[in-house]
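Document type: protein sequence-to-structure record

Subject area: structural biology

Format: plain text, a pair of labelled lines:
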Amino acid sequence: MWLGIAFLVLGIVAVVMQAWLWSFPMVPDPGGPDPNGKSTAPKHWTQFHRIVGLAYVIIYIIMMREMIPRLWEYQTELPARTIIHAVMGISIGFILVIKIAIIRWFQHFGKALPALGTWLLYCTVMLSVLSIPYAMRAHGIGMASLASGVEKIRSDMPNVDFDEEIMEWANSLPEIGNADSAEEKKKKLVDHLATKPALTKGRRVLMTKCTSCHDLRTAIARPRPASAWHSLVVRMARKPTIHAPINGEDMATVTAYLVAITPDLKNAAKKRKKTAAPTTPSDTATAALTAEELAGMKETYDEVCTECHEGEKAFEWGAELKPEERTIEAWTQLTNSMTEEMGAEYSETQAQAVIRYLHNVCGDATPNGACAP
């Protein structure tokens, strides 16, 4: 993230200095390398401009060494934002090659340098706008919310049923492996994960291993409960990869980091939802459903609702109500609460399908008060 910010600052400084240096007149320089003449700009500022340009090129090379292999080995279809990001990055390299070639060998094209510098700044700004905000978001909003994040880990992660590979790694740590009981081991594991070194490690896993196959915006698009983050991380770790595998420590620390930044993700989701109108029951919400319609709505429920929690959660909520309280309005209210409190994102059509499905299998008119998928 800081490398990207430095890259943007250097790009702006280089172009501003270029505009200023070109304001100095050129004087004839017979026999010199540049047929356009020799600039009368102060030499120390000209040298400083070259140093800024060199630093810009070095940072670009460092970033491309990281990004080009990732782009080449990306295992999922590239989102539009990532494609634009890649095009801007490649364009910067193309313009840099042209600029360096003009400066070194083709000075008679020197008058094109200001225009090339302007295009270079445009690509740099576009590249930064598409990457830095999401890098800052993944950073936990500058890690300023670590205190609340640690509390979130301590309160939510004891309820997680940790994967065997995570527990194998945890047992290799003396302070955890020597614990007398499984419950004490879990407590010590949670305490270990609720530390700055563990969260720093988790952020690094997210920014390197997770983004090998996923766009960062996709990875942290919505908040999830701790158990859902754990399930998601374990499921992703089990997928075949040509990159470095995600081991037990990686799974544990990145899960903890995602849990820690969940309050920030939730706040961001709430801001996005403020302008969205809440779902209201449709006129056909209580109409009878065919088997095919019910199957389609169940598929929608499984798709959008299990992103954040287990599929049984809604039915557990419904089972706590009396049969006559499981009205279409009650299910609508629950669906709206998911968007407002959990940041769930689904269309109006999907919301209506979920409401009708839940009301059909766990509603106020189901036979014998049944409430089950």
